[in-house]
Amino acid sequence: MRVILLLVLFLSACASPAPQFFGAARHDITLEGIRFAVFHDGDQAQVIRLGYLSRAARAPVPGLMVIAAERTTGCAAIPNSLRSRIPGDTGEARLSLRCPGG
Hints:
Blueprint: H1 2-12, E1 25-31, E2 34-41, E3 44-50, H2 61-73, E4 76-77, E5 92-98
Antiparallel strand pairs: 1-2, 2-3, 3-5, 4-5
Keywords: Signal
Signal peptide: 1-20
Protein name: Lipoprotein
C-alpha cells in the first residue's frame, strides 16, 4: 500500500503535455507558492498545476494559470479562452494566445 501511495505522489509531481503539445516549449514558473508547467506551441498553451492543493486553496488557480502562460510565453491570453477538459478542474487547462508578430 505504501508503494502505491509513493508512486501516486511521485507521479503527481510530473507534468506531461497533451499529445497536441508534444515538442512544445516547456516553461516552469511559481506564482503565489503554486508551481506550474506551461507548454507553449504557436498561439496555444497548456498549463499544468504541479503538486497538491486542498479544495479551498484552488480558487485562485485559473487566474494564476492565465498569468503563468502570459509571463512565460510573452504573449497575451485571449480573454475567456481558458478551458479545462473537466469543468472546474484546476490541474490542467488550455488557452489561446495573441503573440507579438504572430
